[in-house]
Specification:
seven-stranded parallel sheet; alpha/beta
């Protein structure tokens, strides 16, 4: 039988979700060490391989996370492997993608930058097949050079090199845009950093921050949902956040962009500290926003919070320690008015900070979603003050409290989802309350 006859039509294939998770610099979420200090990348995603919609996941450890001084200090601080990370993530998608599949990208810090560059390349050249992946490295370098050069002749030559791959009828575009839908379903990032992240006072090389040469602020119209958690208390100028900017065409297509400010320094937002109250709040915000589009492991999510302070009141960690004590400082600015280009809001947990003095307009406050409300309501029962003589054991307490509850959610096939944890019960109660309110309003 010929290959043509063996191929099934796209309509008969089972759609799947391809999920790529890119961790931050020096972060490795699969290492056995420092399990209490993992970041928010990967955690909570259900590794489903059974219908109705299978999910396949790539976890990519951060730049410089490999063992050895060269990797940790040279690669980690210069971003020498960033191109490799982008190619690896894109190749995972290319090798598994079938037209109609949904693509999800998550990242923290420079891993967020990696995820956004992968999304950018999908918008630029679509999703290549395995054969065309041989050309990806040269296309990456051409894009990088095009973004950095000021030479008119070189720009023309580079554009000519890219044109066959960027046209609407190019091989990758035909695969990813055949049905006219968004080619990337969801991009969720925690405090994107596009710079190297090492103080210029240490490197003595100011130009090192801008070695990548990409337009990383523009949100491509091919992305359907884009969410970013931002760090209010990050003061290092070399870790300045990279916000998205939405285009008029993105708005016209119905694209959803949300960028929310949270209390905390860089790693308070994406995770990495042993005491991670603040990171748990950002994680549940992201989970709440992706829950309608991606299957999550609610049992695992419910076991993560091990708070040491009342909800939202953990002090932000000081990022200006060690070599960063010499770094230039900056003060990130939260929005004072609504911005339809960056779509920024402020999380209500920020207002829980005792020393927080910012004035926030009410229309800029993010409205908590059911999953977040469940976390806040359950938080007081989970708090275990830090005491060196009495190690915290909130997981044991949580385990005793757990009962199998109906989440109020269903799978794509219509089956009810039951989870053995407090989170299932809380979400069920909240969603039921919301539904009752809607029904009352409809009657009126």
């Amino acid at each position: 039988m010929s290959l043509a006859k063996a191929n099934h039509p796209a309509s008969s294939r089972i759609k799947k979700r391809i999920v790529v998770c890119c961790d931050g610099t020096w972060q490795d979420g699969v290492s056995e060490e420092n399990r209490q200090s993992y970041t928010n990348i990967l955690v909570g995603i259900s590794l489903r391989t059974d219908p109705a919609i299978p999910q396949i996941v790539l976890y990519q450890s951060g730049i410089g996370s490999e063992k050895g001084w060269y990797s940790e200090y040279i690669v980690g601080t210069t971003g020498a492997t960033l191109g490799d990370k982008v190619e690896e993530a894109y190749a995972f998608i290319a090798h598994n993608y079938v037209p109609g599949d949904e693509i999800f990208l998550f990242g923290f810090s420079r891993g967020a930058y990696t995820a956004r560059m992968v999304a950018m390349f999908i918008g630029l050249i679509g999703v290549l097949d395995r054969t065309d992946m041989d050309s990806f490295a040269s296309l990456f370098l051409a894009c990088q050079k095009l973004g950095k050069t000021d030479d008119a002749d070189e720009k023309l030559a580079l554009q000519a090199q890219l044109d066959p791959w960027t046209q609407r009828d190019s091989p990758g575009k035909r695969r990813s845009e055949s049905d006219g839908a968004f080619s990337v379903k969801f991009v969720g990032v925690f405090d994107t950093v596009g710079s190297v992240g090492l103080p210029e006072e240490i490197t003595r090389r100011p130009g090192l921050k801008n070695i990548f040469g990409f337009n990383d602020r523009r949100l491509g119209e091919h992305v359907e949902f884009a969410y970013q958690a931002l760090a209010l208390n990050e003061t290092r100028a070399d870790f300045d956040c990279c916000k998205w900017e939405q285009t008029p065409l993105g708005v016209q297509r119905g694209q959803k962009l949300a960028q929310c400010w949270f209390t905390g320094s860089h790693a308070d937002i994406g995770g990495g500290y042993e005491q991670h109250d603040l990171a748990d709040i950002t994680l549940f915000w992201m989970a709440a926003n992706v829950a309608d589009h991606l299957s999550l492991d609610y049992a695992y999510l419910s076991a993560l919070p091990q708070p040491t302070c009342p909800y939202g009141q953990q002090p932000a960690h000081d990022p200006s320690k060690g070599i960063f004590a010499l770094a230039n400082k900056t003060q990130r600015k939260v929005p004072s008015t609504a911005d339809t280009v960056t779509c920024e809001t402020i999380h209500p947990s920020v207002l829980k900070q005792p020393a927080e003095s910012i004035t926030v307009q009410s229309h800029l406050i993010h409205q908590l979603l059911p999953l977040e409300i469940a976390l806040e309501k359950q938080w007081p029962t989970l708090v275990t003050p830090v005491d060196a003589s009495s190690p915290a054991t909130p997981l044991a307490v949580l385990g005793k409290r757990a009962t199998r509850q109906d989440t109020g959610l269903t799978t794509e096939s219509g089956k009810r989802i039951h989870e053995p944890n407090w989170l299932g019960k809380m979400v069920h109660e909240i969603t039921s309350s919301i539904q009752e309110t809607i029904e009352v309003l409809q009657k009126d």
